[in-house]
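Journal club prep — side note

Before the paper discussion, L.F. wants everyone to see what a predicted structure for a comparable chain looks like in token form. Sequence:
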Amino acid sequence: MLLGSLRDLAPVVVVIFFFQLVVLGQPAANLLGLLEGAVLVVVGLTLFIYGLQLALFPLGEALAFALAERGSFLWLLAFAFLLGFGTTIAEPALTAVAAEAARAAAAAGAIENTEAARDGYELGLRLTVALAVGLALVLGVTRIVMGWSLPKIVIGGYVLVVLLALVSPPDAIGIAYDSGGVTTSVITVPLVTALGIGLASSLSGRNPFTDGFGMIAIVMLVPIILVLAFGAALAWI
């Protein structure tokens, strides 16, 4: 596992060293700090991957199996929604994007340039994205259980994105796409993937390879739709 992390990070380290020494012409004295940082990154990535394999993947699969065995579809949906909402609302990347979006909106005159208005905008955006991820997991779980077509859902979702982009303010479009990207966090992705695979494995007639994947695509898509709708609503209020 350590060798795998080293192999994956080697191209990045080589590029950084090349630009450090050849392009930027920085002194070699800085190489020691870069080497120390590279070693720490390799060790951290190795421990992170080991932790995913040891805890998060088995946890997601076990919960999916247990809820499927109980035969309660509503409990399964409730778990999926709370998992998506809970792992997203406190996501540091989303907090950073929401804070920057609030400051940009205030500077552009879209909202009042007061602390209360900025905090309200930031909280509203975070709640919207967290709600969207929860609904996305509900949709993803329902798709696996019902056997719905993933391509139809994704294509239909992006058609809706295009339509909403036509009526949303221009400044909301970029925020919407970034909000969809920050939902794929280091905690959400492993749990969602494990949930999908575990659920597909526990249901007869479902293939974990063909039916268990695809939830991440939905998780990225639904926040874009809801944030665009959120921006359009603010523009028309």
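L.F.'s comment for the group: The chain has nine helices and no strands. Keep this in mind when we get to the figures.
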